[in-house]
TrEMBL record:
This is Dephospho-CoA kinase. Residues 1-46 are annotated as: Disordered. It comes from Haloferax elongans ATCC BAA-1513. InterPro entries: P-loop_NTPase (IPR027417). The keyword Transmembrane helix does not apply. Residues 30-46 have a biased composition (Polar residues). One of its GO terms (molecular function) is kinase activity. Keywords: Kinase, Transferase.
Amino acid sequence: MGDETRKVSRRPQVGVVNERIKRRQRKNRATVTGESGDGKSNQATVKGGFNSASAVATAMKVIGTVGLPGSGKGELAEVARESGIPVVTMGDIIRGECRARGLDPATEHGTIAKALREEEGDDAIAARSLPVVEDHLESNGVVLVDGLRSDVELDRFRDAFGEEFVLVSVEAPFETRAERLLDRGRDASDTDVKSLKKREERELDFGMGEAMDRADVVIENTGTLAEYREKITLLFEEGPDAVAEANA
């Protein structure tokens, strides 16, 4: 009972995520805003630890992404593929396990994710992903790991790769993400706002909020798709300082 109470008390609520985005803008970090012709803004926030773009580019061996549903992780992964960076999608581990158990990934994804963590530990999905990442690293300089879900998974990757692991948090307000997910309608859980909030609560329950807070790089995906893709490309090719410089 004690552990359960502690888990609930440390979980950020859905409504708090939007406030976290605003709060980050007031912190003492390098934040740059780009604005499109339609008045929409797109921000990239760079936290400490990287002194130059060239240092970041050479240091990034494994890039992880974290973000709530609809934030734009999938688009970031797509830009990585287009740039020749292999992508290991942690959600694919869960979908594969669903199929192995004869279950539909569209409806049982969350159930199996929870089951794996209960059966193999909170870092189970990260642990299953590591051999795949290491295989890619044998023939590639950089690998992207798409979709970390918790601070425990973050610890597993940082233990494995140290300073060569960089975590990127992709963020957007709930309303923006809900609109994207409802338009996309990929999963059965993406059918209405109430379902989306439940899905988000589940993600936060895994410890995603803590992982987002510990990210090395934060990109607020609130502008146009073209702006977002441009910042991702700059991040991959030259590092976060280059992203900030381009928007100065």
